[in-house]
Amino acid sequence: MQSKGINYFEKQLERVWQNTKLKIANTLEIGSGQGEHLPYVKSFPSEGYYCLDIREVNANRIKAKVTPELAAILNFVKADAEAIPFFGNFFDRVHSTCLLHHVDDPLQVLLEM
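The chain above was modelled as a monomer; its predicted structure follows.
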């Protein structure tokens, strides 16, 4: 039941962005893990999709599982969600799924977003 709920949520999150007319240049996914959300991404930013996670990831393995269009703009950043290493207003879209219960200071993560 939980996996069906997560699957539904992931699809709904992307449906919102597919229906927007906003121009998205850069997207930041915080707590991207091993790219679990990426198969759901349907609305691609024009410049870059950044996956931020505190753990090291196998970028080549993750890119092999997504469309070539998405793989071309994927960037992986190893960093703490409580101290995001980008200047403000760099991203047009920031999102996260299943993250806040994993961090020490959820409020700080939300403030960083």
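DSSP finds four helices and four strands in the chain.
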